[in-house]
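Lines hold sequence, tokenised fold; shown next:
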Amino acid sequence: MELKTIAQQAQLKGLSIVGTGDALHPLWLNSIKSELQKAGDGIFVYPELRTKFVLTTEVEDKNRVHHLILIPNEGIAEELRILFSKWSDDIDQEGRASLRLGAPEITDMVVERGCLIGPAHAFTPWTSMYKEFNSLEECYKDAARKVSFLELGLSADTDMADRIPELHGLTFLSCSDAHSPWPDKLGREFNRFEIHEVSFSEIDKAIRRQGGRKISLNVGFDPRLGKYHRTACTRCFKHYALEEAQKVHWRCTECGGLIKKGVWDRVNELAHTESPIHPDHRPPYLRIAPLSEVIALAIGESNPHTPKVQSLWETLVSEIGDEISVLVDADVETIEKISERRIALVIKAFRNGNLEVVAGGGGKYGQLGLPPELRQKLVPQKTLLEFGL
């Protein structure tokens, strides 16, 4: 995870703006200052590359709730680092600092300095707002009105979150921790902004939905592909109904491992309606998956990182321009001409929501699968030699 590599891979993915992450860590902040050039209000760019960066960080509060923070400039980042160091033992070692502060105190401090803040991966069963609290107000208390957005995380989408009425006033961000700079992780969830120019103040206005600026599209995983969508054992990944997990006291009957409540069950606990009620400002949500996984499924490879899959990925991306364009925008006929018919068919099925999904849970990602009718189309025709003739 180096800035140059992130900038290069973001171009291949099709991302215009990337959050730096870890902007309070002194060494990473020094890298930002020394390697990136200022490109306007709160925006940085790697020399000779198009990718722009905005300063972001994630912190953990005293209740183990994670918060995503967007920071206006490097001076504010440095100020927050010094301020938070009074309540942190690891801010100079960890990218995600642990603070001996609650959500209200953190929110007041960052908003006072022009930052934006919201709960990170709000529903996940380890370190999130809805893991520890039953409402936004219970978590943020009097500072709840200062929260600008909610990050959905991989295991939830707009349809799930909009079953909870208290979230209707918030902007949703579909983004996630990258964990690596490669396109199957970087930008696996992203947002499309309608802004007048690339600047922090314009991003701020879009998230606050001011002056016609807005987020026009949330793009993210089919939540069933997330690691914590369903309630499951964290050791052997056996799925459980919520009532069954409660009955066995959250210990797996197969291996004795810890059972973790899935995001689906947690949302059902919090929801007031069976179906989502989307506020007028809510943009569409487009479900997506890494292109390498879609290609692997199409050609019958179990591993999306094999040389054959990567070769096909490189051909499509180099010809069409970037991964997002291949997955979302390019004509299926163009994809078939550049690559293979079976890949074009699977991308078409993926766009139409016709692929099967085996839900993830307990820390194991979900998996894409082919419906029977498409599986038959993808079986190659046998040659005469295979018939023994």
Notes: Residues 150 and 172 are 5 Å apart (CA to CA). The mean pLDDT is 95. The chain is about 35% helix and 15% strand.
